[in-house]
Design brief:
The protein is α/β, with parallel strands linked by helices and 254 residues long. The protein is 36% helix and 19% strand. α2 packs parallel to α3 and α6 packs across α8. It is globular and about 60 Å long.
Length: 254
């Protein structure tokens, strides 16, 4: 059972979502505005936040920014809701650290599936081995969940870290958006949302690449997906060279 904070100024929607999640065994907390949401989050420490973007006075993006700045709430998974289908809304939410988004109207079953996956992924896990991954100037501390590039600390959102860890731990393999939605987000294999992966990749490149428009490490393989590998020029001659191979038949572009 997880504790879910539902934030929306539409009371009927909050009631419907709360009823659905409660029936599935979760505990729910309702908030109908931004300030109320922050107070509830700090009081109850939820396992996941469902956050509407378009709210009066203090909108969802301001709430999201405050959550990500809070040391005790910064890693809580956040799924944003928006009544708009404009790309700009989704981009802003993901850029501010949202883990996922859904456009209204949405199917309650899909919302439940995504919340369940986010909660499961956020649960403490035994750090896998090795404790440190290296790819060129990139260094990833698995247990500490910290990333450095050229000795500089890189602040990543929880989802960005998980995405980078997955790609660095399997350097040279090509993964489609569908692969990543299943392996990183934990969504069912039939989930289709290339935009979610595309924008997380874009945000990650802006943090780890010297020139995000011309990525060197996190690259796109046209018609196949994404791969993280070290350029041959940076691999010692005595060391192994990454050999990209196709991992899935599904194609995607960025």
């Amino acid at each position: 059972m997880a504790r879910i904070l539902i934030v929306d100024d539409e009371r009927d929607l909050v009631w419907a979502v709360s009823r659905s999640l409660t029936a599935a065994g979760h505990e729910t907390i309702a908030a109908y505005g931004g300030a109320e949401a922050l107070a509830a989050a700090r009081r109850h420490h939820p396992d996941c936040v469902i956050l509407d973007i378009m709210m009066p006075h203090m909108d969802g993006l301001q709430v999201l920014q405050a959550l990500r700045r809070d040391p005790k709430l910064g890693t809580v998974p956040v799924l944003c809701l928006t009544a708009r289908r404009a790309v700009e809304d989704r981009v802003r939410a993901l850029s501010e650290g949202a883990d996922d988004y859904l456009c209204k109207p949405f199917d309650l079953r899909e919302l439940h599936a995504r919340v369940t996956a986010l909660v499961r992924r956020a649960q403490p896990r035994v750090p896998p081995s090795p404790g440190r991954l290296v790819a060129g100037p990139l260094e990833l501390d698995v247990a500490g969940r910290r990333v450095h590039t050229d000795g500089r600390f890189v602040a990543l959102t929880p989802t960005e870290f998980d995405l980078l860890y997955h790609l660095m731990s399997r350097q040279g393999e090509v993964f489609s958006s569908q692969d990543l939605l299943t392996m990183v987000w934990g969504y069912p294999p039939d989930t289709s949302d290339e935009g979610l992966v595309r924008w997380h990749v874009k945000n990650l490149r802006e943090k780890i690449e010297q020139d995000p428009a011309r990525p060197v490490y996190l690259r796109t393989v046209p018609r196949h997906g994404y791969v993280l590998s070290v350029p041959a020029s940076e691999v010692p001659e005595t060391g192994p060279r990454a050999r990209p191979r196709r991992h899935s038949r599904t194609a995607t572009h960025i």
